[in-house]
């Protein structure tokens, strides 16, 4: 068991049997959604949804709600469907063969099948959430979806550029990742017992989303590949300039700029040079700063000790992966 | 003015000032949606939405509603957004440079921008409709969206196959085109004065959708290019086997099979041979059969003469394009 799983185990224990039951209901709902659209799409969508993943976003929905009704499961399924939809389309754009160690829809079915599967998952995300009949909730998911699209564009616009600023990097993290974490927390609050805390819990989600993405970018440089499930330096290979490189370039100006001719060995060498500058510790420190901000949001809330503890465990968990 | 425009002019006249006002509100709504997601997406989405198109689906929403409230404009914007989303992604898959004589998002912005723009339009379609707070409506759009994805997959699965049956072709038309026409009519009925007629008006929409797609496929063979805005035989060039070819192969078994080595001149030759078999008249006859079924649905409804006449004009309009 790695640190993440141990951490999520602690969250599950803190959440009690109701959290486990809600997560199981979400799995059933996702399986039903995947199977309802003809044999070919069912195959691709089922594979995608059942390939696992930590279900961190559904978990945030439930933890921010405390108790709630069936609408919570719809919201949890919706955020996971939107997340999956964006991954499936990202894999098409990256021509990615593997995700979480399994062949992508793109690899198995090709461009057309993967585009159609992503489109279907986008539509189903909104259909799930709309079943709650709450326009505010749909608006929250729609804002996240718009942010995902803008983040994707920003990432491609900034590809291969050595002059990306930390501020611009942070904005990209907000669009690509934090917006959906924020929506997950907000939806949980809206449909649970804490609608008045939707704003604060949304900010909590945004902060852990930022930390989550920053740590992902650290792990891409640090590896080890056996733990992260992908070779080191994949961001360098596809031109995605992240905080570790941005920081390293400040202290090691001779560091190679991102370059389309880079191969896996070259990427691995740049990773070592980035590590030598101390940029990873600095980037991890920034991520921890966002975790601290997230925990401060929770601390300030008028909530009993137990739900506060569960939210803080999640906040710690996003940066303790493979630590 | 071509026949379509004349026909739509007659529909507008039959619909009176309220129809014109509703269509104008839809344009404003679409423009607002396009502009609200950052400069780059705004550019692509605005170009896409304002590039025109007949707004046939919004028109169906309004004509099936008679009167109604603001939810009608949301529904009309939603069906048009979903239609546009699917066109933008189709253009990515086809690497299409032009649509309606203008550069596609794919041509202007590349694969990433076009995928993100389509994703955004999909999301916005559901967000618009969800603003009505009606889960039945969202379900209707979601079914259409699922059908679009399945139709796209079916078309690619059947590409370059000379053994596509007329039944399978019809099913593809239903998924790719008729499902969204059906949803448009159903949404109009639900949000207008005729919720009890949603089923019958949905069937009306499905039949004119089938006729619309069939006539599109006839025009791809018949041209003329000056009127259709694209060279003859584009379906043959990308391997899409449609009713004219299916029927022609029955009477002219020596007709060349769809083939990846086909060029524009070869496609034009096959078009001439298809025309020589009389298959176009037969396919047009099938389309007219669906128009007749659509009109029979309307005729059987307990409605005043004027709205019946407007719906019948639309039904006739879909097969009188460039006739």
What is the CATH topology assignment of chain A?
Farnesyl Diphosphate Synthase
CATH first level of chain A: Mainly Alpha
State Rg of chain A: 19 Å
Structural class based on helices, strands and sheet pairing of chain A = mainly alpha
Which spans of chain A have pLDDT < 50 for at least 5 consecutive residues? none
Helices of chain A, by number, come to 14
**Elements of chain A, N to C (H/E):** HHHHEEHHHHHHHHHH
The largest sheet of chain A, given as strand count, sense and whether it forms a barrel, is: 2 strands, antiparallel
Distance between the termini of chain A: 13 Å
Q: Spell out the CATH superfamily of chain A.
A: Farnesyl Diphosphate Synthase
For the secondary structure, the number of strands of chain A is 2
Any idea how many domains of chain A? 1
Helix content of chain A: over 70%
Description:
Two copies of one chain form a homodimer. In chain A, helix 1 (3-35) crosses helix 4 (71-94), helix 6 (135-157) runs antiparallel to helix 7 (166-191) and helix 8 (198-222) packs antiparallel against helix 13. Chain A contains 14 helices and two strands. Chain A has 323 residues and is mainly alpha-helical. In chain A, strands 1-2 form a two-stranded antiparallel ribbon. The first copy, chain A, has helices at residues 3-35, 39-50, 56-65, 71-94, 105-130, 135-157, 166-191, 198-222, 225-228, 234-237, 243-251, 264-276, 279-299, 305-319, and strands at 98-99, 102-103. Chain A has one domain (3-319): Farnesyl Diphosphate Synthase (Orthogonal Bundle), CATH 1.10.600.10. The radius of gyration of chain A is 19 Å and the shape is globular. Chain A is 76% helix and 1% strand. The model of chain A has no long low-confidence stretch (mean pLDDT 89). Chain A binds chain B through residues 36-38, 40-41, 85-86, 89, 92-93, 111-113, 115-120, 122-124, 126-127, 129-135, 138-139, 141-142, 145-146, 148-150, 152-153, 156-157, and chain B through 36-38, 40-41, 85-86, 89, 92-93, 111-113, 115-120, 122-124, 126-127, 129-135, 138-139, 141-142, 145-146, 148-150, 152-153, 156-157.
């Amino acid at each position: 068991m790695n640190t993440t799983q141990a951490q999520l185990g602690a969250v599950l224990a803190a959440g009690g049997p109701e959290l486990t039951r809600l997560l199981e209901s979400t799995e059933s709902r996702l399986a039903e959604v995947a199977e309802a659209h003809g044999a070919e799409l069912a195959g691709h969508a089922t594979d995608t949804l059942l390939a696992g993943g930590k279900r961190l976003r559904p978990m945030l929905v439930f933890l921010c709600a405390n108790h709630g009704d069936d609408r919570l499961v719809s919201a949890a399924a919706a955020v996971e469907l939107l997340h999956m939809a964006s991954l499936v389309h990202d894999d098409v754009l990256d021509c990615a063969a593997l995700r979480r160690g399994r062949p992508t829809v793109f690899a198995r079915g090709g461009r057309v099948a993967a585009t159609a599967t992503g489109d279907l998952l986008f539509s189903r995300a909104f259909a799930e959430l709309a079943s709650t009949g709450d326009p505010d909730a749909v608006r929250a998911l729609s804002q996240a979806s718009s942010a995902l699209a803008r983040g994707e564009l920003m990432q491609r616009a900034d590809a291969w550029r050595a002059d990306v600023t930390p501020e611009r990097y942070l904005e990209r993290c907000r669009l690509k990742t934090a917006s959906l974490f924020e929506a997950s927390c907000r939806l949980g609050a809206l449909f649970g017992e804490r609608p008045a805390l939707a704003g604060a819990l949304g900010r909590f989600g945004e902060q852990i989303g930022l930390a989550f993405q920053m740590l992902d970018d650290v792990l891409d440089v640090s590896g080890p590949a056996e733990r992260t499930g992908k070779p080191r330096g994949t961001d360098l290979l596809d031109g995605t300039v992240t905080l570790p490189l941005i920081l390293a370039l400040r202290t090691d100006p001779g560091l190679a700029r991102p370059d389309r001719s880079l191969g896996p060995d070259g990427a691995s060498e740049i990773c070592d040079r980035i590590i030598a500058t101390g940029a990873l510790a600095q980037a991890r420190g920034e991520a921890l700063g966002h975790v601290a901000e997230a925990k401060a949001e929770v601390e300030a809330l008028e909530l009993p000790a137990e739900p506060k503890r569960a939210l803080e465990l999640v906040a710690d968990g996003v940066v303790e992966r493979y630590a």
